[in-house]
Amino acid sequence: MERRSYLAAVGTVGAGALGGCLREPSEQSSQAGITVERVVEELTHPWGLATGGPEDALLVTERDPGRLQRVDPTGGTATEISGVPAVDAAGQGGLLDVTWGPDGSWVYLTYAIATEDGTTTRLGRGRLDDGGDRLTDFETLYTAEPAVDSAGHYGSRVAFGPEGYLYMTVGDRQFKDFGSEHVAQDRSNDLGTTLRLQADGSIPADNPFVDDETARDAIYSYGHRNAQGLDIHPETGAIWESEFGESDGDEINVIERGGNYGWPVADEGCTYGSGQPIGVSHDDREDVIAPVFGWPCGEDGPAPSGMAFYDGAAFPEWQGDLFVGGLAGQQLVHLTVDGEEVTAREPLVADRGWRVRAVAVGSDGGMYLAIDDGSAPIVRLLPDA
User: Fold this and answer.
1) pTM for this prediction
2) What's the pLDDT score for residue 12?
3) Annotation says 334 is catalytic
4) Considering only Cβ atoms within 10 Å of each terminal Cβ, which end of the chain, N or C, has fewer?
5) From 45, 153, 224, 334, the catalytic residue
6) Residue 212: half-sphere exposure toward Cβ, Cα within 13 Å
């Protein structure tokens, strides 16, 4: 099975009762000084993690069957939150990312929906009620266009920048025409892009293409394949993104206003099966932005998913480091960052066989990981006691 085919080969698992799950005893990691705790068990393909909010709740999405859970890391329990919109839970679709709004009053969700024309990625938000078990006032904010006949490459990470704008990734929906006519190079649609929105879903007046009648107003950057990692650098405020390549070609990018990131006319990966280059190297074109770090054709990249800069207190030696979930690589990628110079360190939890889908830093300084499986845990990394 090819590497990316493995990513899409997800099974359908029945939903089970999640309340009252007890935390497993702590396990020692293979790395000295780190303890791995199983916070809660038996989630179904967890996809997104959000820490914070008014009560410092840990929110977790389950891609299939489309549930939102509020996890208590201390008690080891998960409580289902009602009021979540209907999703199209097929292929790589379902309930995807989750984040808190800047003021902590709104919960933002991204998810796949089905329409008469196909499927697409949608953004919505609701308020978590006082009991913490229901979303109220839920509203649709943005729907990526067009809907297409595909069940893959929804993108769908979402993050708020320092100025309060919301950034959201949309995948290229698996189009294979690797030339200049590819959807990711066509700004008249939302596919293969990073979108920039106001917190209420409206379009900022200073978005880069609002005066271009041939472009979608929400586009902030384009030329992306399928970005499933997005976070804001805690010191610079820069937008960092992780993106799947085809066969290798995985990327770490710093997102610039109006930037073209090349897919598929400029890329460092290669095609499935034949191993032929896709387009030309980023270095061969002046009109595209190259990744700041990557795994080119011939290197076995991790298939990078969710990511987070570490800004907690539990691991002071990690301050400012970038951690990226690896799916095919079954690891937590550890990168040090100096400006835009990125250096790989020894990966974490590489001995567990875990497909790491999402990463978040808790107020306790712990590193929380969502493991993608049909019956999966949320785990936390903490210093040894």
Assistant:
1) 0.92
2) 31
3) no
4) C
5) 153
6) 16
